[in-house]
Amino acid sequence: MTCKPVKLLVCKLAVPTIIAMVTTALYNVVDAAFIGRLSTGGTAGIGISFGYMTFIQALGFFFGHGSGNYISRALGAKDASSASVVASVGVITPLLLGLLAAVVCLPNLSALSRLLGATPDVVPYANDYLRYIVAATPFMMAALTLNNQLRLQGNANFGMIGIVSGAVLNIGLDPLFIFTLGMGVRGASLATAVSQCFAFCLLLAGTFRPESVHITLRDFKPSWRVYYEIFRGGLPSLFRQLFNCAAAVSLNYCAAIYAPAGQEASAVAAFAVVTRIMMFAFSVVLGFCQGFQPVCGFNYGAKLYRRVYESYMFALTVSTAFLIIISAVGFIFAPQIVALFRAEDSNLIAIGAVTLRWQCAAFPLVALSTATNMLFQNIRMTFPATLLSVCRNGLFFMPAVILLPMWLGLQGVQMAQAVADVFTFMLALPYAVWIARKLKDGK
């Protein structure tokens, strides 16, 4: 970690992480594509459920990044015992919190669906998709935590195997449950729940490999100090994902409110489709930047600041170049891409194509804020990391999605994410220049 060429290290760690992230995003895309063959309401129901999925991700990434960032620094400083305690606390705690969430939400699915923005005609579909997802919440949270811990230890290959295996199983079970067994939307939910439980078991087994930090009940020693370390390292991820959750819910409400009369389900479904398309593209950038994080953490812990700078600039350059290419493709072929999910609904395609083009117009700017946020998170600069993490889907998106439609109607909802991305870039740029100069000078 501290001797090999930086670019080679980042690429080596990024490849399995990209594969894991892309495959994970792929099963969300496949879910939407299969359900789109059944009905627009089913696609809208999956979109409504995205708010709860981001809640699961919020806690999973919070504990995963918070404990994983500490673990990478502790291993760099040769402190294996502290790493084991933080790892065990970081995995067992989300298991318990996920169990609590499932117990509270399962008896109240209709209320949860309405809270997430479902209109009356979409509530049954949202309930069907949420049912098994809610039941599997503990394992989904813990699987996300384990994947990030393994990645930040430098064991990205096994983390990839665990996540990809679960996603491949999900893709295989989808047609079996949805069509062969005739379960419809419930089948997509059950396929996701089963695959995520399988991924959790596989990732947990990976922690008992000799090169991994072990997860044991013996090392489950929760304390204020341990949770403080997790809090410092995971707070940016928590805020980012919670705002993602709030953004998803706000988008559902605004899409239904400002859609043309009779097209409410089509509008919600259109935004659900575009969200999954953009997540799929962004997963490549997220995976590449996550490949940079272990290099950053180890070298920062070893006080090799110049290597941190080199890895940061490399991650930023590659991510920006990729987003420019993918955004051009998305902008040109927007109607054709959206039609892959629900060709029978012309209203969905029309709304989705405009939305996709707006988001592609500003998408390349996302690379700067993403790479800079991850850098700050790894070197424990909590305030700027948290600030950048909440901008895209919080500080700027929430006002945009609420205010713009007041003047522009549905078009305001469609362009809200692009406006938020521009303002996020403008805020991130001076931070990026400052930290790059500081690291380059060895400070």
Descriptive account of the structure:
The structure is a single chain. The protein is an all-alpha fold and 443 residues long. It contains 17 helices and no strands. The protein is globular, with a radius of gyration of 21 Å. The model has no long low-confidence stretch (mean pLDDT 89).
Task: List segments where confidence is low: pLDDT < 50 over at least 5 consecutive residues.
Answer: none
Which shape, going by the Cα principal axes? Answer: globular
The residue-averaged pLDDT reads: 89
Which structural category do the helix and sheet elements fall into? mainly alpha
Strand element count: 0
Which percent band covers the strand fraction?
Answer: under 5%
Helical content stands at over 70%
**SSE arrangement, N to C:** HHHHHHHHHHHHHHHHH
Q: Rg, please?
A: 21 Å
Q: N- to C-terminal separation?
A: 20 Å
Helix segment count?
A: 17
Describe the sheet with the most strands.
Answer: none
Summarize the model shown.
It contains 17 helices and no strands.
Characteristic key phrases:
443 residues; 17 helices; mainly alpha
Describe the secondary structure blueprint for this structure.
Layout lengths: L5 H31 L3 H37 L3 H26 L3 H7 L7 H13 L1 H16 L3 H25 L4 H22 L17 H35 L5 H38 L3 H28 L1 H6 L6 H17 L3 H13 L3 H14 L1 H12 L1 H31 L3
Helix pairs in contact: 1-2, 1-7, 1-10, 2-3, 2-5, 2-6, 2-9, 2-10, 3-6, 3-9, 4-5, 5-8, 6-7, 6-8, 7-8, 9-10, 9-15, 9-16, 10-11, 10-13, 10-14, 11-13, 11-14, 13-17, 14-15, 14-17, 15-17, 16-17
